[in-house]
Amino acid sequence: MKRKIKKWALRLSVTGLLIAVLLLIIILNPVLTYANKTEHASFTIYHQKPIDSLLYVKLDEAAVLLQKSEFYNNKLKLDICLNDGSLYPTLIRKLRGRAFAWGFYDKVVLQGKMNEKGNYLELNGYKWNLIQLLAHEMTHCVQYDKLGLWKSKPIASIPNWKWEGYAEFIARQNQDQTDLIRNIDRLEQAPKDSWEISFEDGTISPREYYNYWLQVQYCLVVKQMTYDQLLKDKKSETDIKKEMTSWYRSIKQKATLSGTRRT
């Protein structure tokens, strides 16, 4: 009986290992689940349906944003996996969870419905700026490329605000998003119970990610830290948030006093 149990345990272990290897092969090789692939600049786009030429423009603009990262590598080639009928995005969603998109290793996997003309990707009624979403997920690929698998999330214990906040910082470069005071104002004015923070173009950022972004923006712009320094810094998210809030209140108070004197 013990021998049979050991035999079945071994078979199950081997079967589990084979399934894991098969999944890994599929994840690393999207071409196995897509009908088409198209090369554009440093991107390989995997798709089922014909590509709207506007997507090339969005990818190029996202690539320009990516150059602002200190981890930028112009030799890095990225796979862009579209959600247009392939089983690949579904597989990634089963493994990683539901999201607008996932960026890992050298892959950006879109999960929502893309609208190139409107420059957004929609999921559950919410719209994320398409160029910025691409740049956000590409930044994760740059993080993996620079830090390596073992020093990247989810293996490394990097706080979410440093990991996701940096991706938002690199991506959120619209004219109405570069001023930290204005960004905090937007947060202060948003409904306290809202899941999202809305932008002027009708797209959103999840409130959690928005907070992460502001904290990274404060560290990199106001404190003039590098991202590498931020990763090594021991201050907690709470401490940074307190610092930023104190800095913001001070600026607003000075502006109020200045306005009062002019009056």
What does this structure look like?
The chain has 263 residues and is an alpha+beta fold. 52% of the residues lie in helices and 15% in strands. The chain has 9 helices and 10 strands. A 5-stranded mixed sheet has the order 1-2-3-5-4, sandwiched between helices. Strands 6-7-8 form a 3-stranded antiparallel sheet. Strands 9-10 form a two-stranded antiparallel sheet. Helix 2 crosses helix 4.
Features:
alpha+beta; five-stranded mixed β-sheet; 2 domains; 10 strands
Identify the CATH class of the largest domain: Alpha Beta
Total E-strand runs: 10
Strand order of the largest sheet: 1-2-3-5-4
Distance between the termini: 92 Å
In terms of per-residue confidence, which ranges show pLDDT below 50 for 5 or more consecutive residues? none
- Assign the CATH architecture of the largest domain: 3-Layer(aba) Sandwich
Give the overall form: globular
Topology pattern, helix = H, strand = E: HEEHEHEEEEEHHHEEHHH
- What count of domains describes the coordinates? 2
Total helices: the number is 9
The amount of beta strand, in percent, is: 5-15%
Rounded radius of gyration (Å): 22 Å
- In CATH terms, what is the fold-level topology of the largest domain? Glutaredoxin
- Measured as a percent range, the helix fraction is 40-55%
Sheet with the most strands, sense and barrel status: 5 strands, mixed
Q: Which secondary-structure class do the elements indicate?
A: alpha+beta
What's the rounded overall pLDDT mean? Answer: 92
